[in-house]
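Task: fold both queries, return tokens.
Query 1:
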Amino acid sequence: MHDVTAIILAAGLSRRMGVRNKLLLPISGVPMIRHMVNVYSAAIDGPVLVVTGHEADVVEAGLEGSAAVTVFNADYAQGQPTS
């Protein structure tokens, strides 16, 4: 049994960024979402869940090979409370 599970909400439309998805912006050459998964994976002993929605396929591609477990929110367009 794990003491802590991290849940990263990554389903939003990223509207304030315009046409770019902020989750995919590089930080030291790594997509931001993957960087966050790496940080949480190093900090806890439990799973890191990433709730996807908008552009789920490209977000999941950015996480390929990481320790993240993705969960798709089909109602992502309704806002953060659905995640």
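Query 1 returned. Query 2:
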Amino acid sequence: MLSIKPVVIMGATGTGKTKLSIDISKVIGGEVINADKMQIYAGLDITTNKIRPNDQGGIPHHLIGVISSIADDVSVPSFRSIATTTAESIARRGRVPVLVGGSNSLMHGFLADHLDPSLANPFSIAKYKPNLRFKSCLLWVHTHELVLNEYLCRRIDDMVASGLVEELKEYFDTTLAHKIGNHTGLAKAIGVRELSKYFGGGMSLSDSIDEMKANTKALAKSQTTKIRHIAGVWGWPVCVVDSTEAIRCHLSGGDHSTEDISWERDVSSPAIAIVDKFLHS
């Protein structure tokens, strides 16, 4: 039987998971498997914050933009199937699957030894404690909430400057209204519901963007709560690295070298050491 030993990078949106996945993959011969439930759909690249091909550092990335933008929700069992097939393909080529994303429901679906489709929310059941089906290296990229919230607001401003509003306008103009109104699939992406109020004339652009920021911060808090549940209640062996100082340096707008030093000291170097020990154990 093919042995899969995945490296799994968890964390709230904006904490640096994507950057770390590339850093680690370059060292260990890894390939990235996306576990973000919005980035799996084609379209809305700015809104869903997909990594651009020229930012991938030459690392193969899988399951990004592979589902039609008008498809309904991708089920957890479906993701488990396609992610497992992808991980097996990577391992068969002598590479290391590096699963990365903020969708903890997809992480659970891929990693749990037994998947019960009747569990609508596995994080809400106190007595539910799944085991891992693979020997896995679980990394949590954590950022202090106040610093992360400031960064998330800044990131959305940058996304707006990069064409988020125009991208969403085109999406609304070309997608069937009932697909958007049902809020399934890609229509669940933060930005769709909020900007629909602006395009419909019911809210100013400024207020729509503010609502998008508030919902993004709420998402980050929910993601963090679920990771604490994974580590504390389920008892999965989660190792923590902290990107707070690196993000704080980024927000200060100072010398990039200071940010790079903080990132390497607090995040990439300790994470790579953890992964190296895992792979050679």
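Both queries returned. Flag for query 2: The first helix runs from residue 17 to 28.
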